[in-house]
Amino acid sequence: MSKKLTIGLICGGTSGEHEVSLISAYNIQAALDRDKYDVLLIGIDKSGAWFLGKTPEFLDNVDDVRQVKFRKNLPILLPQTGNYAGENLTSTEQSGNELANVDVFFPITHGKLGEDGALQGFLELLGKPYVGADVYGSAICMDKDVSKRLLLQRGIPVARYKLIRNPDELSFEDAVSELGNTLFVKPCREGSSLGVSKVRSAEEYQVALQKAFSADRKVLVEEAISGRELECSVLGNDSPEAAHVLGEIVPLREFYSYEAKYVDDDGAELKIPAEIDSQVSLKIRKAAVEAFLITECRSMARVDFFLRDDNTFILNEINTLPGFNNISMYPKLWDASGLAYPELLDRLIELALE
């Protein structure tokens, strides 16, 4: 029997998606085949401290995304970077030997400093293989403006938008004149609908700008697209493929917000498979693979689209570290396409080694 690989599963982080990351990590560690892998859990708390665990008891309240958290008194790997005195930490000394023994890192750290290239750069410095996009692809896809410009250059349709760098740069009246009566205001470099607002009035616009600029120095003001929300899972490195089955998100609230995705049980309905024409599905899957390559992705990405009534589509965004919780579309679409969750994890680890 070949030697088991040690997988360093990195979770948590300092972003607003901290809790979602913990749920994803719990599900991944539960599905990794222990006959093939030893699993080292590497947690990053909200202060930026790193610590270690080797069992699922690393986490508390794993059934509730609002309450999930790291256990107290875990051994420190790296001390916190901020002023917050992390209550989870003990003074136990740990060397870098734990990291040195990892064969493949599996970061499942959503959001800023987790999927924007920062963590990926650190893993590059360690000289270790890791799951997911590299520094380049991660940074490109986290920046909605940069990724949209690259996609437009290659003829893949995206929503019309204006990039602004201060709240006074674009008035509500000018935005409506150029983009339509209903607008979305969103931070340029943030994930999972965090800081996103749907606005229809000047008053809502001002509140939305304040919210978005509190999260990022670059903000997008975007047209609202009327259409069905479809998601496509892509897997691979230089020769990626899209899952045969597409999924559809049916928001039951104003739009598919962070709360609808992860907190509100009645926030949205998930349809797998999406009921669409087979030729339209093929075009969307081809566009997803092309977008994956254009934006320098590798390993995996979830590519989201809007499908209009006339069967034309708009690419909404590319997520290089999609969720792996119980309702996450990325693994569900591969499962529906014949690649079960444990085998998907095997494939992602193989791609990292490749």
Structural features, described:
With 354 residues, the chain is of the alpha+beta class. It has 3 domains: 5-130, Rossmann fold (3-Layer(aba) Sandwich), CATH 3.40.50.20; 140-158 and 226-339, D-amino Acid Aminotransferase, Chain A, domain 1; 161-223, ATP-grasp fold, A domain (Dna Ligase, domain 1). Helix content is 31%, strand content 24%. The protein has 11 helices and 17 strands. It has helices spanning 18-31, 97-100, 118-126, 135-142, 144-153, 172-179, 202-213, 258-262, 278-294, 329-336, 341-353, and strands at residues 5-12, 37-44, 50-53, 59-60, 69-70, 76-78, 104-107, 161-164, 183-187, 197-199, 219-223, 228-236, 241-242, 247-251, 268-271, 299-307, 313-319. The strands form 4 sheets. Strands 12, 13, 14, 15, 16 and 17 form a 6-stranded antiparallel beta sheet that branches. Strands 6-3-2-1-7 form a 5-stranded mixed beta sheet, with helices on both faces. A 4-stranded antiparallel beta sheet has the order 8-11-9-10. Helix 1 links the parallel strand 1 (5-12) and strand 2 (37-44). The longest helix has 17 residues, at 278-294. It is globular and about 60 Å long. Residues 82-86 and 88-95 have low confidence and may be disordered.
Features:
354 residues, alpha+beta, Rossmann fold, D-amino Acid Aminotransferase, Chain A, domain 1, Dna Ligase, domain 1, 3 domains, 5-stranded mixed beta sheet, 11 helices, 31% helix, globular
